[in-house]
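ok trying again, last paste got cut off:
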Amino acid sequence: MNLSILLAGVCAVSLAVHVASVVTVIARFKRRDVGTAGLASAGVSILRPVCGIENFIEETLRSTFMLNHPRYEIIFCVAEADDPVIPLVERLIAAHKQVAARLLIGNSTVSSNPKLNNLVKGWHASRHEWVLMVDSNVLMPRDLLQRMQAAWREDTGLVCSPPVGAAPQNLWAELECAFLNTYQARWQCFADAIGLGFAQGKAMLWRRDVLDAAGGIEALSVEIAEDAAATKIVRGQGLRVRLVETPFAQPLGRRGAVDVWRRQLRWARLRRDTFKWFFIPEIFTSAFAPLVLATLAAALAGRSVLAMVAPIVAVWYGAEALLACAAGWPLALRIVALFMLRDALLPLLWIAAWTGDEFEWRGKAMTVAVSTT
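nice, full thing came through this time. structure:
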């Protein structure tokens, strides 16, 4: 077979898979399932680990008190007594006395994961069968618990939501949306749609007995990332991780280029460390590889590179823009340029993930080389 034809065929397959993932996720967002968990009247304990002052922190934490659910408690977890977020949390609790809420301060060193160490006390203090762990920067819609309930089935061990970037206020925040939304959230929702769902630590709804069967919250220390450990625990019990149909928003505000790079590098190195065989093919999940192969195919066939590349760019990024529009996600005028910048950075991130173990989390230097303490 002529090499140029082979390369063109690989490009066509990549483009077809990309479009199929977009169509699948759009269809998923339009579906409204009814779950089997019976959460409508069951009590829910909501654990929110907080650390420092973030963009939109008051709005995201306040949303915890606005849920349309008859019975839930909120447990805010702070590791250090001098954390500047504490006065804000105390003020919100005082202003919403109709909701059972409390603040726990302290740290349990069960792992090298600071967030998990912060959450341990909240898990043991919670009193309901259902426990939702949700990051402080997630904006909780009023029907969040109902939407998570709708994803639960008889074979479910955990329901999660990937983060979706919202309210970007500068170029770099828009770039982060390009990473989070039509790339990462799309692939994660597509994986769930084909039965390969995996956990995301932004929002995780547990039924207490599932995690207790593995040894309780401390069992999440077997991996440096609690969501990777959660995925392995759930699958080890013959259960599935499922995702909500429409992910929850994380308002971004302003971002710096270095901040976006560090965050993506942290996630890439964690994925490489915890799910190596799934991380290897990530190099092929963006438009970078198909565009390189299309360029080579055109050169070998003596055809115009532009004629080969332009249709791929139009269909690939047009499909992503259509997904963002259908989902109501931010869609900047420069969106195609941002998609292309993201896809140019992804191979560099993939290489960087293999060439080091260090990353930064909230200003703290960490490494994937040591997964437990």
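cool. The longest strand covers residues 44-50. The chain is about 50% helix and 15% strand.
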